[in-house]
């Protein structure tokens, strides 16, 4: 009978990786799955590699073993990730490879400026940590590029969709670093390499395979369909009230783009490697209260925003108007006494979903900060945990996530998808989620949904999507459907997020 790997040595032997001399045989509490074994081998066999395995398939173990092998081969690893994942990654490493702390030095770079200066001096004298963990925000600082990065040869980017913007500072700095290093390896890990539209793929491909396209202009000519549109200027320039701009209206050459995206990458699918079904998507149409709908329509017609200081400004841009309309859909009580919070049928729908399984915890996703705070007040009896762009930053978000996972009195988790939609493991405590506001980016939606569809989930996962009828929210949902069509073309799993959603109704709400 084939021996089951239960130590790091066995894991490496299964992956056909040369075990560095002096590497300790760290015990592991579980057996790596075949796709994790093959994934480690592929990562170590390539200087640039994309680990695009579907969310929930165990990419973290591969990244950790990858970093440990490089440590014993004499290289130091810099790991970049969203701030909310820093503490979780370090704890997971200790839990997965028992005793690793005796052999590996590691530091999470989120200290104060004064403390960082002291640490740099200390590390210059005694040696830099084998593994340095940092956030994308910290990596983007010139201080990190100048003081920290020169000491590291291996770069690992978790949730690498944050690097998709080829013209962003973060992407540019990593691109230059890996170009300047003579000896380096780069690992990009993400379940959504194409996060919003196919245009995202260029930034990822540029880091993994620089010969695929000679420039962004070359990529654009092959894959982007554009047209010239007239844009109204907020303020006339040299007497001109309009300007012409190129706008992307479609995409082409998807097969060639997919070939280049996966030339230096692989994607393991959850349905192939784990005994977990895909989540059930349930659309919940919402008919707004008549008073609410009248207020919404009047505002939309007038296109005027009334601020707290009683000043009136015209919504000059479509983006500003969309944000105000979305706010009016979610929290109409902010716009006067005519629509009280008791007439908010979106909140009623959340209550109805909660009541349908009162013993189970519920995750509620909302985009706007005011919506998160209004939901927190409305459902305060459930002692909700909050993760959003409020005070406290990523440390406070991590504290709130832990509250949801460990406090039995905390029945609800209210979060912004960007604050809690990547890297978190909620499958042990939750199997239901509801989106109260629309998301137009397929990758954000997918990342948020996959917090629950992971190994260890014992219940069928149900995702509810609220769609207020006759509002801009309905339009945004259709926008995501359109974008998802391209997303599906570029992913081997062909998994739909919302296009196959079931059209169910919540009693007394829709």
Element layout with pairings:
Layout: H1 8-14, H2 34-45, E1 48-51, H3 59-72, E2 77-81, H4 86-96, E3 106-108, H5 113-126, E4 131-135, H6 136-139, H7 142-148, E5 154-158, H8 169-180, E6 185-189, H9 201-208, H10 216-223, E7 224-237, E8 240-251, H11 254-261, E9 265-266, H12 270-273, E10 280-286, H13 290-302, E11 304-306, E12 312-314, H14 318-330, H15 345-356, E13 361-365, H16 369-378, E14 385-387, H17 393-406, E15 412-415, H18 417-420, E16 430-435, H19 442-449, E17 462-468, H20 472-489
Parallel strand pairs: 1-6, 1-9, 2-4, 2-5, 3-4, 5-6, 10-17, 13-15, 13-16, 14-15, 16-17
Antiparallel strand pairs: 7-8, 11-12
CA-based gyration radius: 24 Å
| Count of domains | 2
Strand content: 15-25%
SSE-based structural type: alpha/beta
Number of helices: 20
Poorly predicted residue ranges: 304-316, 497-510
**CATH architecture classification of the largest domain:** 3-Layer(aba) Sandwich
Helix content percent band: 25-40%
- Could you describe the largest sheet, including whether it forms a barrel? 7 strands, parallel
Q: What is the 3D shape?
A: globular
Task: Please explain how this structure is put together.
The protein has two domains: 8-217 and 255-267, Tandem AAA-ATPase domain (Rossmann fold), CATH 3.40.50.10810; 275-489, Rossmann fold. Helices cover 39% and strands 18% of the residues. The chain has helices spanning 8-14, 34-45, 59-72, 86-96, 113-126, 136-139, 142-148, 169-180, 201-208, 216-223, 254-261, 270-273, 290-302, 318-330, 345-356, 369-378, 393-406, 417-420, 442-449, 472-489; strands at residues 48-51, 77-81, 106-108, 131-135, 154-158, 185-189, 224-237, 240-251, 265-266, 280-286, 304-306, 312-314, 361-365, 385-387, 412-415, 430-435, 462-468. Strands 3-4-2-5-6-1-9 form a seven-stranded parallel β-sheet, with helices on both faces. Strands 10-17-16-13-15-14 form a six-stranded parallel β-sheet, with helices on both faces. It has a two-stranded antiparallel sheet with strand order 7-8. The model is unreliable at 304-316 and 497-510 (pLDDT under 50).
